Amino acid sequence: MVTPPNRRLGFNRKAQYRAFTGYVLAILGGFVGLFLLVISFIDPTGFAALRGAASEATAPVSGGLAGARAGASNSWDEVSAYFAAASKNADLERTIERQEAQIVEANALRQENIKLRRLLGLVEQEADTTVTISRLINSTATSTSRIATIYAGSRQGVEAGQPVRSSKGLVGRVLTTTPNTAKILLLTDPRNRVPVKRTEDGIVGFTEGLGDGRIAIKLVEMGVNPFEPGDIMVTSGNGGLYRPNIPVAVVVESTADGAIANLLSTPAATDYVTVQPRFIPIDDPSDNSDGQSDDSIVDGAAQTDPGR
């Protein structure tokens, strides 16, 4: 019989040797087990000594394996603790970020509440001179016309010509209205002129918007300029429209015919405003030397306001 060309010589012989060796080891193991079993019955004391010797012989190996298991367990615990700590740190960072956001929001709410309390305090003092309270939505900053918008209109009782102020001072007057919004002509607009007086001695003048965030204060009677930096100007009530003693501005620079002043209530720093009814001054009849009626005096005074 011809041997196949791909058959490796000696392959079956090696397999037979391995099988024979396995059988021999299995038989020897069986005899050793049977021998130990017989000894355990015949001589328990000798079997105990033999078992102790076996334990002593295998102790180093067993100890090494136990140490390896303990080391592996400790290593796994350390790895688990590391990943757990990283996860906890990530959770703490997210918690801190949320708390920081909450702190910022709480501070913003606190500042808004302070502004609202001031405004509500103003409304309580002037309960009979308040049409509505509204949020100031936006205001122009680049155009020569200085206009702001509030979220209140004719449905809330807002009418053209009504003064608008914040808790810090005068903002302007209503220019036009829609059912739910109104345009405000700011004090910095050149078209808006407001009669004012100095708080120190009552020297009167009128404001004129410069279109750049400031106002000019013009003297009614030309002469020696009495204005100095730091003077506080309030509404005088002359001519109607604006009730007297509303804070307006503080003088920062004297000029040949008056002064330059910064507003006390700037639209950029104003959130809420109060719309007030138009002020109608009531003159003392005893001062009506020319015999005109009170109504005619009011009409004449109103006409002196160039912004109307």
Describe this structure in words.
The chain is of the alpha+beta class. It contains 3 helices and 12 strands. The chain has helices spanning 11-42, 44-125, 294-303, and strands at 132-139, 147-150, 163-165, 170-177, 182-186, 193-198, 204-209, 214-219, 232-235, 247-254, 258-263, 272-275. It has a 6-stranded antiparallel barrel. A 6-stranded antiparallel β-barrel has the order 6-7-8-11-10-9. Helix 1 packs across helix 2. The longest helix has 82 residues, at 44-125. Mean pLDDT is 75; it is low at 284-308.
Question: Quick summary of this structure?
Answer:
With 308 residues, the protein is of the alpha+beta class. The protein is 40% helix and 22% strand.
Write the layout of secondary structure elements.
Blueprint: H1 11-42, H2 44-125, E1 132-139, E2 147-150, E3 163-165, E4 170-177, E5 182-186, E6 193-198, E7 204-209, E8 214-219, E9 232-235, E10 247-254, E11 258-263, E12 272-275, H3 294-303
Antiparallel strand pairs: 1-2, 1-12, 2-5, 3-4, 3-12, 4-5, 6-7, 6-9, 7-8, 8-11, 9-10, 10-11
Helix pairs in contact: 1-2
